[in-house]
């Protein structure tokens, strides 16, 4: 079977912040009223609320070429940014807030109320945001098998995205404090290996029966077959500062899914990876991001993160080339290597104080800065 360019979509979660204090602020409903429809609504793009009233999500429609992904991401960010400005707020893309304010659960949503009640203090101040990538795989058994193949690479996706150094208003020492916050929920991290869709469904149903997740749509694994769409959904990444970094996550994730499908078509099963090593690799990626060592999933030891990136590119290079994405990914990775992770850039801005970090993030979120190289846009 030949897999050419798979469809892809991206869901980005954003924080809302007060432009004077820099702290997160409730205002999602007001902002969404101002924003009205997603600029690519006709293609399936949409906005909606999240768990807390300081969060909103923008989802692209179903995309093919990366320049389509890029246009939809930038269009949504610019539209939401303008709506936030009109509502007296800043739109900020970061995995955790620099300065968390006290915000309530989004009102009028029974599911959010149930989640808040179930997790109590763990959810009460869960002001974290991610960048979720959906890649079209319409065979659910194939989607389960693909997720098995993705397991070794999920920590590297996290390292590429690390953009949440702040926890509870201070530098946490981590590159992704979001991942540490998420680890407090049951079933977080790299998913187990599942032999079939039925086995996956039984596992999720057990978690519901045990009272630790609200419903089958609520697992916290970093990758899964989507419970709503015919896709593989990868949720390893922090909310990234720039639209270009979200494009990078989309391209690399699609490359990983394509490589997995090619392996499966050739009869190659997912390589075994120890669950404890997976957990160590996720923690290490959260701790260091791109600025420290990583954990090699097969050698089971620390190695330079640059080596993990090289092996990732070797693994997905043919898939990227076939899809026409290789040049774009190489350019984006080169920029990220020079600029450093989002966490590093936040720390570099911190000499001006926390509000300077918030301002920098707001500017990068809406693209009011010199754009980085985008060879996929000609």
From TrEMBL:
InterPro entries: GCL_type2/YbdK_subfam, GCS2, Gln_synth/guanido_kin_cat_dom, YbdK. It is an enzyme of class 6 (ligase). Keywords: ATP-binding, Ligase, Nucleotide-binding. Its EC number is 6.3.2.2. One of its GO terms (molecular function) is ligase activity. It catalyses: L-cysteine + L-glutamate + ATP = gamma-L-glutamyl-L-cysteine + ADP + phosphate + H(+). ATP-dependent carboxylate-amine ligase which exhibits weak glutamate--cysteine ligase activity. Belongs to the glutamate--cysteine ligase type 2 family. YbdK subfamily. This is Putative glutamate--cysteine ligase 2. The lineage of its organism: Bacteria, Bacillati, Actinomycetota, Actinomycetes, Streptosporangiales.
């Amino acid at each position: 079977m030949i897999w050419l360019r798979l469809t892809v979509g991206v869901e980005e979660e954003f924080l809302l912040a007060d432009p004077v204090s820099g702290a997160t602020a409730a205002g999602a409903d007001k902002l969404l009223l101002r924003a009205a429809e997603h600029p690519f609504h006709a293609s399936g793009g949409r906005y909606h609320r999240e768990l807390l009233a300081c969060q909103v999500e923008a989802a692209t429609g179903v995309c093919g070429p990366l320049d389509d992904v890029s246009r939809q991401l930038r269009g949504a960010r610019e539209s939401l940014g303008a709506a936030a400005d009109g509502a007296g707020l800043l739109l900020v893309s970061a995995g955790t807030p620099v300065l968390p304010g006290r915000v309530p659960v989004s009102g009028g949503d029974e599911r959010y109320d149930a989640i808040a009640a179930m997790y109590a203090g763990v959810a009460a101040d869960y002001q974290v945001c991610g960048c979720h990538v959906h890649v079209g795989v319409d065979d659910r058994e194939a989607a389960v098998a693909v997720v098995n193949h993705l397991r070794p690479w999920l920590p590297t996706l996290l390292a590429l995205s690390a953009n949440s150094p702040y926890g509870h208003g201070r530098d946490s020492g981590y590159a992704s404090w979001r991942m540490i916050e998420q680890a407090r929920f049951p079933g977080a991290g790299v998913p187990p290996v599942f032999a079939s869709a039925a086995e996956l469904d039984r596992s999720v149903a057990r978690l519901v029966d045990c009272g630790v997740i609200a419903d089958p749509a609520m697992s916290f694994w970093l990758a899964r077959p989507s419970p709503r769409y015919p896709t593989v959904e990868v949720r390893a990444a922090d909310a990234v500062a720039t639209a270009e970094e979200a494009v990078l996550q989309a391209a690399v994730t699609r490359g990983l899914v394509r490589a997995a499908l090619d392996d499966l078509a050739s009869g190659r099963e997912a390589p075994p990876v120890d669950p404890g090593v997976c957990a160590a690799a996720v923690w290490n990626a959260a701790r260091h991001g791109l600025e420290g060592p990583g954990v090699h999933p097969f050698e089971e030891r620390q190695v330079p993160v640059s080596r993990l990136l090289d092996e990732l590119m070797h693994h997905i290079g043919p898939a990227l080339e076939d899809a026409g994405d290789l040049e774009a990914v190489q350019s984006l990775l080169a920029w990220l290597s020079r600029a450093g992770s989002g966490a590093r850039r936040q720390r570099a801005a911190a000499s001006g104080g926390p509000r300077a970090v918030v301002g920098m993030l707001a500017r990068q979120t809406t693209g009011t800065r010199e754009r980085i190289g985008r060879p996929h846009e000609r």
